Input
Amino acid sequence: MARTHSAPVFLTGVLLLPVGWMLLVPLGGRVADAAYRSDEDFYTLLGLCGGLLILGSIFLILGSIFRALRKIDRLNSTADTVPAQQPASDEEPVA
Output
């Protein structure tokens, strides 16, 4: 099973968040302006892509935080365990 590190996934989510916001609000929000009504479909598509990027980045950020917390919990739960002792052999050492 391949292990994924949560730091690159978290950073990807953080970097995609402003990109999605730029597509959603400044570019996608131009549909409300009368000057841009001719390209309404294009800017609506940009707004939808921006919204999907925002949702995806939030999913990546929360997923990486959840994975990191699970890893920390797993490390803390195994830190308090005592290793099992070796069973005594059936033969007694000769003195």
User: Anything to note?
Assistant: The CA atoms of residues 1 and 67 lie 15 Å apart. The mean pLDDT is 76.
